[in-house]
Every structure is written in structure tokens, then in C-alpha cells.
Amino acid sequence: MTARSRLRFEAVVFDLDGTLIDSVHPDFLACTALFEERGACLPRDVWAREVCGRPEGYPRLFELLRHDVAAAARTPAASLGPGLTDERLRQRLEELWEVFMTPAHVRLLPGVPRVLERAADAGLRLALASSSHGAWVHRWLRHFGIAHHFGAVVTGDDVVRRKPAPDAYLQAASALGRAPARCLAVEDSLTGIAAARAAGMTVVAVPTPLTRGLPHGAADLVLPDLRDADLVALFTTP
């Protein structure tokens, strides 16, 4: 019996942000700067729990900032003025992203080239399923020279519902011509894990240093990182 015939899976679907590239730490730096500009502090654990990878994360971030500023000023949040509206804060955060979401800060995560090569060499089809905008996704795939590994790339622009809805994962499996149950998903966030599980995939979680304290128990397997990770060996049926 060949190694390929013993594989439980026919495809691997990867998330991008926090899984293949470290855009999580630069995002935290931008959010931290937003708080510091207004004399507030953003604890790492609060950001990881309330903001990172969550669909409502940034509105929650702005709510937390208004609460801290109001508490420091001993005034109701409603009386803080127009500078702390969601619209103004979002505009400023996007300016800070331009500072921190650059090649100087966004890095390819350790082990990524090797794990992609191992999976492809074993005959697994590879896809990417991200909630990020297409321009962002393709920018970093090109920058790090890994686009050629993926037979399908699904971004937030390609689906009606983003994670935690399963749409991106279901569309990726369909594009590869594989049943979701025969796909392995690799994710970093609780939102992404929920999306892959809802799609019916087996999930490997690879938390980032900022999110390791969160409960990743919904995943089938949790790895510290992708260095030395052999997804083929881990999921090969004896």
C-alpha cells in the first residue's frame, strides 16, 4: 500500500493571516499605537480575546478605547466628542496599518515553505481560505513567492459570509474538487477554527504567540508552530 493511499486526506486548506504570515503582531502594534495616542493601554490578553480574528473585533476595540478614555477623564463615553467615533478611529487605525503592515513587520512564519512542500510532495492538493480582501491576500502570496503552491485561493471578496461562516472553506474544497471531509484545515484563530469545523473539515490549530492563551480545544490538533510539522505523517492511517 502506498503512502498516498493511506492518507486520510486529499487536500489541505490553509488560512493566511496568523497561519502562513505573521500579520497578527503588526496588527497588535497598530492597535496598541491607537490606544497610546490617547493615553490608554491595550493589554495583550484583552486584544487577543476581544479583537484578534473576530468579525466584530475592531468595533469592540473602539468600544474598549472609549471606555478607557472616559474612565481616565471621569466622564461618560457619550460626551467624548467626535474624535472617538467608530468612523474616526477606524480612519486612524487604517493610517497606522500603513505604518505597521509592511514587509518590515509582516513576516513569513517559521516552517511555512517546508510544510507546503511536504504536503505537495505527498500528492495533497493545497488551497487557501482567507477572510481578508483579495488585494491583501495576493500581495503577500506574491511577496513571499508561495502563490504557486495553491490550486485555489478564496478570499473575503469571493464569499457572501466571512468566517466564522464556513463559506470560504466550502468554496476552497469545491474549487479543488474535494469533499470537505477529505480536507484538512490549518488555522490560527478561534473564528477560523469555527469556520473550518462548520465546513466539516478536520482542523489543525497553530496559535500565534499572542493568542496561545486562548482555548483552542475545538481543533482536532494543536501545534506550537509549523516548524518540523509533517501533516502527512500526522494524519496517515497505519
Architecture overview:
With 238 residues, the protein is an alpha/beta fold. The chain has 2 domains: 3-22 and 106-234, 3-Layer(aba) Sandwich (Rossmann fold); 25-100. Helix content is 42%, strand content 11%. The chain has 10 helices and 8 strands. The strands form 2 sheets. A 6-stranded parallel sheet has the order 5-4-1-6-7-8. Helix 7 links the parallel strand 4 (125-129) and strand 5. Helix 2 (24-36) packs across helix 5 (86-100). The longest helix has 17 residues, at 57-73. The protein is elongated. The N and C termini lie close together (10 Å). Mean pLDDT is 91; it is low at 1-5.
Major sheet summary line: 6 strands, parallel
Structural class category: alpha/beta
The shape is elongated
CATH superfamily of the largest domain: HAD superfamily/HAD-like
CATH topology of the largest domain: Rossmann fold
CATH class of the largest domain: Alpha Beta
Name the helix and strand elements from N-terminus to C-terminus, one letter apiece: HEEHHHHEHEHEHEHEEH
Unreliable runs: 1-5
Q: How helical, in percent, are the residues?
A: 40-55%
Distance between termini?
Answer: 10 Å
Radius of gyration: 19 Å
* Share of β-strand residues: 5-15%
> How many H/I helical runs?
10
Please state the average pLDDT score. 91
CATH hierarchy: architecture of the largest domain = 3-Layer(aba) Sandwich
Beta-strand segment tally: 8
Q: How many domains?
A: 2
Strand order of the largest sheet: 5-4-1-6-7-8
Provide keyphrases for this structure.
single chain, two-stranded antiparallel sheet, Rossmann fold, alpha/beta, six-stranded parallel sheet, 238 residues, 2 domains
